[in-house]
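Deliverable D4.2, example record:
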Amino acid sequence: MAEDLSFDLVVIGSGPAGEKGAAQAAYFGKRVAVVEKEPEPGGAGVHTGTLPSKTLRETALYLSGHRARDLYGVAVELDPNATLPRLMARKSAIASAEAGRIRWNLDRHDVRYFHGAGKLRDAHTVVLTKDDGSEVCLDTKFVLIATGSRPRQPADIDFADDHIHDSDEILEIDKLPKSMAILGGGVIGCEYACMFAALGSRITLVDSRDEILPYLDGEIVRQLVSAMKNLGIEFRQGQKWGAITRTKTGVQTTFGDGSTLDTEQLLFAAGRVGNTTDLGLENVDVKPDSRGYLPVDRRFRTSADSVMAAGDVVGFPALASVSMEQGRVAVCHAFGFGYKESVSELMPYGIYTIPEVSTIGETEETCQKKGIDYVAGRAFYKHNARGKITGDVEGITKLVIDAKTRRVLGVHVIGERATELVHIGQTLLHLGGTVDLFIDMVFNHPTLSESYKYAAYDCLGALAKRAE
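Output generated by the structure prediction step:
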Protein backbone atom coordinates (compact mmCIF):
# COMPACT_ATOMS: atom_id res chain seq x y z
CA MET A 1 0.00 0.00 0.00
CA ALA A 2 1.43 3.37 -1.06
CA GLU A 3 2.29 5.84 1.68
CA ASP A 4 -0.13 8.75 1.95
CA LEU A 5 1.91 11.89 1.33
CA SER A 6 -0.97 14.34 1.07
CA PHE A 7 -1.18 17.03 3.74
CA ASP A 8 -3.16 20.08 4.69
CA LEU A 9 0.06 21.89 5.63
CA VAL A 10 3.74 21.36 4.91
CA VAL A 11 6.14 23.43 7.00
CA ILE A 12 9.69 24.00 5.77
CA GLY A 13 11.88 24.60 8.82
CA SER A 14 11.47 23.52 12.45
CA GLY A 15 12.58 26.58 14.39
CA PRO A 16 10.19 28.54 16.66
CA ALA A 17 7.82 29.63 13.87
CA GLY A 18 7.80 26.25 12.14
CA GLU A 19 7.28 24.15 15.25
CA LYS A 20 4.49 26.31 16.69
CA GLY A 21 2.75 26.77 13.35
CA ALA A 22 2.77 23.02 12.71
CA ALA A 23 1.51 22.21 16.21
CA GLN A 24 -1.24 24.84 15.97
CA ALA A 25 -2.60 23.41 12.72
CA ALA A 26 -2.39 19.85 13.99
CA TYR A 27 -4.12 20.82 17.24
CA PHE A 28 -7.20 21.66 15.20
CA GLY A 29 -7.09 18.35 13.36
CA LYS A 30 -5.15 19.22 10.23
CA ARG A 31 -2.75 16.76 8.64
CA VAL A 32 0.70 18.37 8.93
CA ALA A 33 4.26 17.60 7.85
CA VAL A 34 7.50 19.35 8.85
CA VAL A 35 10.58 19.27 6.62
CA GLU A 36 13.97 19.98 8.22
CA LYS A 37 17.31 19.76 6.40
CA GLU A 38 19.53 20.02 9.49
CA PRO A 39 20.37 16.88 11.53
CA GLU A 40 18.12 17.97 14.41
CA PRO A 41 15.09 20.27 14.69
CA GLY A 42 15.17 23.66 16.35
CA GLY A 43 16.91 25.96 13.90
CA ALA A 44 19.50 28.56 14.79
CA GLY A 45 17.73 29.32 18.06
CA VAL A 46 18.59 25.88 19.44
CA HIS A 47 21.88 25.08 17.75
CA THR A 48 23.85 28.26 16.93
CA GLY A 49 22.09 31.29 18.36
CA THR A 50 19.69 31.82 21.23
CA LEU A 51 20.26 28.84 23.50
CA PRO A 52 24.03 28.41 22.97
CA SER A 53 24.73 32.10 23.53
CA LYS A 54 22.59 32.19 26.67
CA THR A 55 24.42 29.09 27.90
CA LEU A 56 27.72 30.94 27.45
CA ARG A 57 26.27 33.93 29.29
CA GLU A 58 25.38 31.82 32.31
CA THR A 59 28.80 30.16 32.14
CA ALA A 60 30.49 33.56 32.03
CA LEU A 61 28.51 34.82 35.01
CA TYR A 62 29.26 31.69 37.01
CA LEU A 63 32.94 31.20 36.20
CA SER A 64 33.87 34.86 36.33
CA GLY A 65 32.27 35.37 39.74
CA HIS A 66 30.66 38.49 38.27
CA ARG A 67 27.54 38.23 40.39
CA ALA A 68 29.57 37.90 43.60
CA ARG A 69 32.26 40.52 43.07
CA ASP A 70 30.46 43.45 44.67
CA LEU A 71 28.96 41.23 47.33
CA TYR A 72 31.94 39.25 48.55
CA GLY A 73 34.92 40.82 46.81
CA VAL A 74 35.50 37.58 44.96
CA ALA A 75 38.33 37.53 42.44
CA VAL A 76 38.19 34.61 40.03
CA GLU A 77 40.82 33.84 37.40
CA LEU A 78 39.96 31.55 34.54
CA ASP A 79 42.40 29.01 33.22
CA PRO A 80 44.11 30.90 30.37
CA ASN A 81 44.03 27.70 28.32
CA ALA A 82 40.29 27.21 28.82
CA THR A 83 38.49 26.45 25.57
CA LEU A 84 34.99 27.48 24.71
CA PRO A 85 33.91 23.86 24.09
CA ARG A 86 35.02 23.12 27.66
CA LEU A 87 33.24 26.19 29.00
CA MET A 88 30.19 25.24 26.93
CA ALA A 89 29.97 21.69 28.24
CA ARG A 90 26.25 22.09 28.84
CA LYS A 91 25.50 23.45 25.37
CA SER A 92 25.23 20.09 23.65
CA ALA A 93 23.09 18.63 26.42
CA ILE A 94 20.72 21.61 26.36
CA ALA A 95 20.48 21.62 22.55
CA SER A 96 19.84 17.88 22.53
CA ALA A 97 17.15 18.20 25.19
CA GLU A 98 15.41 21.03 23.35
CA ALA A 99 15.58 19.18 20.02
CA GLY A 100 14.06 16.18 21.80
CA ARG A 101 11.28 18.37 23.19
CA ILE A 102 10.48 19.64 19.69
CA ARG A 103 10.33 16.10 18.32
CA TRP A 104 8.09 15.12 21.25
CA ASN A 105 5.80 18.11 20.66
CA LEU A 106 5.44 17.34 16.96
CA ASP A 107 4.91 13.67 17.65
CA ARG A 108 2.20 14.24 20.25
CA HIS A 109 0.34 16.38 17.71
CA ASP A 110 0.74 13.61 15.08
CA VAL A 111 2.90 15.83 12.87
CA ARG A 112 4.97 13.90 10.32
CA TYR A 113 8.65 14.83 10.51
CA PHE A 114 10.83 14.50 7.41
CA HIS A 115 14.59 14.98 7.34
CA GLY A 116 15.82 16.53 4.10
CA ALA A 117 15.78 19.69 2.01
CA GLY A 118 12.40 21.07 1.00
CA LYS A 119 11.79 22.88 -2.27
CA LEU A 120 8.62 24.21 -3.87
CA ARG A 121 7.78 22.59 -7.19
CA ASP A 122 4.55 24.58 -7.34
CA ALA A 123 2.17 26.24 -4.90
CA HIS A 124 0.88 22.89 -3.63
CA THR A 125 3.88 20.56 -3.94
CA VAL A 126 7.01 20.40 -1.82
CA VAL A 127 9.82 18.20 -3.11
CA LEU A 128 11.77 16.56 -0.29
CA THR A 129 15.37 15.69 -1.17
CA LYS A 130 16.82 13.16 1.26
CA ASP A 131 20.48 12.77 2.20
CA ASP A 132 20.89 9.93 -0.31
CA GLY A 133 19.66 12.16 -3.14
CA SER A 134 16.28 10.48 -3.52
CA GLU A 135 13.22 12.69 -3.87
CA VAL A 136 9.71 12.49 -2.46
CA CYS A 137 6.80 14.75 -3.39
CA LEU A 138 4.57 16.05 -0.60
CA ASP A 139 1.19 17.35 -1.77
CA THR A 140 -0.33 20.08 0.35
CA LYS A 141 -3.04 22.72 0.53
CA PHE A 142 -0.75 25.24 2.22
CA VAL A 143 2.99 25.76 2.71
CA LEU A 144 4.57 27.61 5.63
CA ILE A 145 8.14 28.75 5.01
CA ALA A 146 9.96 29.07 8.36
CA THR A 147 13.59 28.74 7.31
CA GLY A 148 14.97 31.52 9.50
CA SER A 149 18.01 33.66 8.83
CA ARG A 150 21.80 33.52 8.89
CA PRO A 151 24.58 36.05 9.57
CA ARG A 152 25.36 38.50 6.79
CA GLN A 153 28.81 37.87 5.34
CA PRO A 154 30.14 40.77 3.23
CA ALA A 155 32.22 39.54 0.30
CA ASP A 156 35.25 41.66 1.26
CA ILE A 157 35.67 39.89 4.63
CA ASP A 158 37.47 36.55 4.70
CA PHE A 159 35.27 34.44 6.94
CA ALA A 160 37.32 31.36 6.04
CA ASP A 161 40.09 32.83 8.20
CA ASP A 162 40.15 31.15 11.59
CA HIS A 163 40.52 34.52 13.32
CA ILE A 164 37.45 36.11 11.69
CA HIS A 165 34.00 34.94 12.70
CA ASP A 166 30.29 35.44 12.27
CA SER A 167 27.80 35.06 15.11
CA ASP A 168 26.84 31.49 14.16
CA GLU A 169 30.32 30.01 14.52
CA ILE A 170 31.95 32.27 17.10
CA LEU A 171 31.28 29.70 19.83
CA GLU A 172 33.35 27.09 18.01
CA ILE A 173 36.68 28.92 18.40
CA ASP A 174 39.41 26.91 20.09
CA LYS A 175 40.29 29.23 22.97
CA LEU A 176 39.23 32.43 24.62
CA PRO A 177 40.84 35.34 22.75
CA LYS A 178 42.98 37.82 24.63
CA SER A 179 41.39 40.56 22.57
CA MET A 180 38.52 40.81 20.10
CA ALA A 181 36.97 43.47 17.91
CA ILE A 182 33.21 43.19 17.53
CA LEU A 183 31.81 45.01 14.53
CA GLY A 184 28.17 45.89 15.07
CA GLY A 185 26.57 47.36 18.19
CA GLY A 186 23.20 45.67 17.85
CA VAL A 187 21.75 43.06 20.17
CA ILE A 188 24.07 40.24 19.06
CA GLY A 189 27.19 42.42 19.21
CA CYS A 190 26.37 43.79 22.65
CA GLU A 191 25.51 40.36 24.06
CA TYR A 192 28.75 38.75 22.89
CA ALA A 193 30.78 41.77 23.99
CA CYS A 194 29.51 41.32 27.55
CA MET A 195 30.00 37.55 27.59
CA PHE A 196 33.59 37.60 26.38
CA ALA A 197 34.48 40.61 28.53
CA ALA A 198 33.16 38.80 31.63
CA LEU A 199 35.40 35.87 30.70
CA GLY A 200 38.43 38.14 30.60
CA SER A 201 38.82 39.06 26.92
CA ARG A 202 39.67 42.66 26.05
CA ILE A 203 36.74 43.75 23.89
CA THR A 204 36.38 46.70 21.55
CA LEU A 205 32.80 47.22 20.35
CA VAL A 206 32.59 49.16 17.11
CA ASP A 207 29.43 50.65 15.65
CA SER A 208 28.80 53.08 12.82
CA ARG A 209 26.04 54.76 14.81
CA ASP A 210 26.60 57.29 17.57
CA GLU A 211 24.44 55.28 19.98
CA ILE A 212 23.96 51.56 20.48
CA LEU A 213 20.46 50.07 20.59
CA PRO A 214 18.77 53.39 19.68
CA TYR A 215 15.24 52.01 20.04
CA LEU A 216 15.69 51.51 23.79
CA ASP A 217 14.93 54.16 26.38
CA GLY A 218 17.91 56.51 26.43
CA GLU A 219 18.40 56.35 30.20
CA ILE A 220 18.50 52.56 30.07
CA VAL A 221 21.07 52.66 27.26
CA ARG A 222 23.28 55.01 29.23
CA GLN A 223 23.10 52.69 32.23
CA LEU A 224 23.94 49.69 30.04
CA VAL A 225 26.91 51.47 28.45
CA SER A 226 28.19 52.37 31.91
CA ALA A 227 27.89 48.76 33.04
CA MET A 228 29.62 47.50 29.90
CA LYS A 229 32.48 49.94 30.43
CA ASN A 230 32.78 48.61 33.97
CA LEU A 231 33.30 45.19 32.39
CA GLY A 232 36.24 46.69 30.51
CA ILE A 233 34.56 47.05 27.12
CA GLU A 234 35.93 49.85 24.96
CA PHE A 235 33.50 51.64 22.64
CA ARG A 236 34.29 53.08 19.22
CA GLN A 237 31.06 54.68 18.05
CA GLY A 238 30.31 56.67 14.95
CA GLN A 239 33.08 54.71 13.24
CA LYS A 240 32.72 53.13 9.81
CA TRP A 241 35.07 50.25 9.22
CA GLY A 242 36.90 49.59 5.98
CA ALA A 243 39.56 46.99 5.25
CA ILE A 244 39.84 43.98 7.55
CA THR A 245 43.18 42.23 7.13
CA ARG A 246 45.01 39.36 8.77
CA THR A 247 48.32 40.14 10.47
CA LYS A 248 50.98 37.98 12.08
CA THR A 249 49.43 38.49 15.50
CA GLY A 250 45.73 38.61 14.62
CA VAL A 251 43.37 40.92 12.74
CA GLN A 252 43.66 44.59 11.86
CA THR A 253 40.57 46.72 11.24
CA THR A 254 40.99 50.00 9.38
CA PHE A 255 38.46 52.79 9.92
CA GLY A 256 37.19 55.56 7.71
CA ASP A 257 39.33 58.15 9.46
CA GLY A 258 42.46 56.14 8.72
CA SER A 259 42.94 54.81 12.25
CA THR A 260 43.44 51.11 12.87
CA LEU A 261 42.62 48.57 15.55
CA ASP A 262 44.67 45.42 16.15
CA THR A 263 43.05 42.49 17.96
CA GLU A 264 43.66 38.77 18.19
CA GLN A 265 40.23 37.89 16.79
CA LEU A 266 37.25 39.61 15.13
CA LEU A 267 33.51 39.01 15.28
CA PHE A 268 31.37 40.49 12.53
CA ALA A 269 27.89 40.97 13.98
CA ALA A 270 26.33 43.55 11.67
CA GLY A 271 23.15 42.17 10.22
CA ARG A 272 21.51 38.95 9.07
CA VAL A 273 19.87 37.76 5.84
CA GLY A 274 16.93 35.48 5.17
CA ASN A 275 17.44 31.79 4.33
CA THR A 276 15.57 31.83 1.03
CA THR A 277 17.97 30.30 -1.47
CA ASP A 278 17.17 26.94 -3.09
CA LEU A 279 13.54 26.98 -1.94
CA GLY A 280 12.05 27.04 -5.44
CA LEU A 281 10.46 30.42 -4.83
CA GLU A 282 10.73 31.23 -8.53
CA ASN A 283 8.29 28.38 -9.19
CA VAL A 284 5.56 30.19 -7.28
CA ASP A 285 6.56 33.72 -8.29
CA VAL A 286 7.60 34.76 -4.78
CA LYS A 287 10.52 37.19 -4.65
CA PRO A 288 12.64 37.88 -1.55
CA ASP A 289 13.79 41.45 -0.93
CA SER A 290 17.41 42.59 -1.17
CA ARG A 291 18.22 41.06 2.23
CA GLY A 292 16.64 37.72 1.40
CA TYR A 293 13.51 38.34 3.49
CA LEU A 294 10.04 37.38 2.29
CA PRO A 295 7.42 40.15 2.13
CA VAL A 296 4.13 39.05 3.70
CA ASP A 297 0.75 40.61 4.48
CA ARG A 298 -0.87 40.83 7.92
CA ARG A 299 -1.95 37.20 7.53
CA PHE A 300 1.65 36.21 6.74
CA ARG A 301 0.77 35.27 3.18
CA THR A 302 3.35 35.78 0.46
CA SER A 303 2.37 36.86 -3.05
CA ALA A 304 1.29 33.23 -3.58
CA ASP A 305 -1.92 32.79 -1.58
CA SER A 306 -1.20 29.21 -0.53
CA VAL A 307 2.40 29.97 0.54
CA MET A 308 2.94 31.62 3.93
CA ALA A 309 6.09 32.70 5.73
CA ALA A 310 6.82 33.42 9.39
CA GLY A 311 9.72 33.93 11.75
CA ASP A 312 13.12 35.41 11.01
CA VAL A 313 12.68 34.73 7.29
CA VAL A 314 10.22 37.66 7.13
CA GLY A 315 12.64 40.05 8.87
CA PHE A 316 11.79 42.46 11.69
CA PRO A 317 11.50 41.93 14.62
CA ALA A 318 13.27 38.54 14.35
CA LEU A 319 12.52 37.51 17.93
CA ALA A 320 11.93 33.86 18.79
CA SER A 321 8.95 34.84 20.95
CA VAL A 322 7.32 36.77 18.10
CA SER A 323 8.21 34.10 15.54
CA MET A 324 6.19 31.56 17.51
CA GLU A 325 3.15 33.83 17.40
CA GLN A 326 3.60 34.54 13.71
CA GLY A 327 3.58 30.84 12.92
CA ARG A 328 0.40 30.32 14.91
CA VAL A 329 -1.37 33.33 13.39
CA ALA A 330 -0.38 32.32 9.85
CA VAL A 331 -2.00 28.88 10.04
CA CYS A 332 -5.06 30.19 11.89
CA HIS A 333 -5.74 32.56 9.01
CA ALA A 334 -4.97 29.91 6.39
CA PHE A 335 -7.52 27.46 7.79
CA GLY A 336 -9.98 30.01 9.18
CA PHE A 337 -9.71 28.82 12.76
CA GLY A 338 -10.81 32.18 14.21
CA TYR A 339 -8.48 31.56 17.14
CA LYS A 340 -5.44 33.82 16.89
CA GLU A 341 -6.02 36.59 14.37
CA SER A 342 -3.02 38.85 14.93
CA VAL A 343 0.34 39.20 16.63
CA SER A 344 0.20 41.70 19.45
CA GLU A 345 1.79 45.05 18.71
CA LEU A 346 3.07 45.07 22.30
CA MET A 347 6.22 43.00 21.97
CA PRO A 348 8.78 42.77 24.77
CA TYR A 349 12.46 42.86 23.88
CA GLY A 350 14.89 40.77 25.88
CA ILE A 351 18.58 41.62 25.55
CA TYR A 352 20.92 39.23 27.35
CA THR A 353 23.78 41.59 28.03
CA ILE A 354 25.45 41.83 31.45
CA PRO A 355 23.31 43.19 33.03
CA GLU A 356 20.32 42.06 30.97
CA VAL A 357 17.75 44.51 29.61
CA SER A 358 14.09 44.13 28.78
CA THR A 359 11.63 46.69 27.54
CA ILE A 360 8.09 47.09 26.24
CA GLY A 361 5.98 50.04 25.18
CA GLU A 362 6.75 53.73 24.96
CA THR A 363 10.08 55.25 25.93
CA GLU A 364 10.61 58.82 27.06
CA GLU A 365 11.94 59.56 23.59
CA THR A 366 8.94 58.12 21.72
CA CYS A 367 6.57 60.01 24.03
CA GLN A 368 8.38 63.22 23.21
CA LYS A 369 8.20 62.53 19.46
CA LYS A 370 4.50 61.71 19.66
CA GLY A 371 3.67 64.68 21.88
CA ILE A 372 2.43 62.48 24.72
CA ASP A 373 2.24 64.21 28.10
CA TYR A 374 4.05 61.75 30.37
CA VAL A 375 6.01 61.32 33.57
CA ALA A 376 8.57 58.64 34.42
CA GLY A 377 9.32 56.91 37.71
CA ARG A 378 12.26 54.77 38.74
CA ALA A 379 13.22 52.27 41.39
CA PHE A 380 16.88 51.37 41.82
CA TYR A 381 18.06 47.87 42.69
CA LYS A 382 20.63 49.37 45.05
CA HIS A 383 17.71 50.54 47.21
CA ASN A 384 15.98 47.16 47.00
CA ALA A 385 16.62 44.50 49.68
CA ARG A 386 16.83 41.67 47.15
CA GLY A 387 19.13 43.77 45.02
CA LYS A 388 21.45 44.22 47.98
CA ILE A 389 21.37 40.48 48.72
CA THR A 390 22.27 39.53 45.14
CA GLY A 391 24.84 42.29 44.80
CA ASP A 392 23.14 43.86 41.77
CA VAL A 393 23.67 47.58 42.24
CA GLU A 394 23.22 48.61 38.59
CA GLY A 395 19.58 47.67 38.11
CA ILE A 396 16.68 50.01 37.43
CA THR A 397 12.94 49.42 37.01
CA LYS A 398 11.47 52.34 35.10
CA LEU A 399 7.84 53.16 34.33
CA VAL A 400 6.56 55.67 31.77
CA ILE A 401 2.95 56.72 32.39
CA ASP A 402 0.40 59.06 30.83
CA ALA A 403 0.37 62.22 32.97
CA LYS A 404 -3.38 62.74 32.52
CA THR A 405 -4.80 59.22 32.80
CA ARG A 406 -1.96 57.62 34.85
CA ARG A 407 -2.11 54.70 32.43
CA VAL A 408 1.14 52.76 32.12
CA LEU A 409 2.64 53.32 28.67
CA GLY A 410 6.07 51.73 28.93
CA VAL A 411 8.16 49.46 31.15
CA HIS A 412 11.96 49.36 31.01
CA VAL A 413 14.11 47.15 33.22
CA ILE A 414 17.88 46.74 33.39
CA GLY A 415 19.45 44.35 35.87
CA GLU A 416 19.12 40.85 37.23
CA ARG A 417 16.02 39.00 35.93
CA ALA A 418 14.99 41.94 33.74
CA THR A 419 13.62 39.62 31.06
CA GLU A 420 11.36 37.99 33.67
CA LEU A 421 10.35 41.16 35.51
CA VAL A 422 9.18 42.99 32.40
CA HIS A 423 6.18 40.68 32.06
CA ILE A 424 4.60 42.06 35.23
CA GLY A 425 4.40 45.46 33.60
CA GLN A 426 3.49 43.94 30.24
CA THR A 427 0.26 42.60 31.71
CA LEU A 428 -0.77 46.07 32.80
CA LEU A 429 -0.01 47.50 29.35
CA HIS A 430 -2.24 44.90 27.70
CA LEU A 431 -5.06 45.62 30.15
CA GLY A 432 -4.70 49.38 29.84
CA GLY A 433 -4.22 49.65 33.60
CA THR A 434 -3.03 52.59 35.63
CA VAL A 435 0.04 52.90 37.80
CA ASP A 436 -2.20 52.83 40.87
CA LEU A 437 -2.47 49.05 40.60
CA PHE A 438 1.21 48.71 41.54
CA ILE A 439 0.54 50.86 44.61
CA ASP A 440 -2.34 48.57 45.64
CA MET A 441 -0.54 45.27 44.96
CA VAL A 442 1.17 43.33 47.75
CA PHE A 443 4.56 42.00 46.63
CA ASN A 444 6.63 39.30 48.28
CA HIS A 445 9.51 40.70 50.32
CA PRO A 446 12.36 40.73 49.60
CA THR A 447 11.93 40.56 45.81
CA LEU A 448 13.03 42.54 42.82
CA SER A 449 9.34 42.66 41.85
CA GLU A 450 8.83 45.15 44.69
CA SER A 451 10.65 47.67 42.53
CA TYR A 452 7.41 48.14 40.59
CA LYS A 453 5.71 49.58 43.68
CA TYR A 454 8.50 52.07 44.32
CA ALA A 455 8.75 53.06 40.66
CA ALA A 456 4.99 53.67 40.83
CA TYR A 457 5.44 55.86 43.94
CA ASP A 458 8.10 57.79 42.05
CA CYS A 459 5.64 58.35 39.20
CA LEU A 460 3.02 59.67 41.62
CA GLY A 461 5.66 61.88 43.21
CA ALA A 462 6.47 63.33 39.80
CA LEU A 463 2.79 64.03 39.20
CA ALA A 464 2.48 65.69 42.60
CA LYS A 465 5.42 67.99 41.86
CA ARG A 466 3.81 69.00 38.59
CA ALA A 467 0.53 69.75 40.37
CA GLU A 468 2.34 72.01 42.81
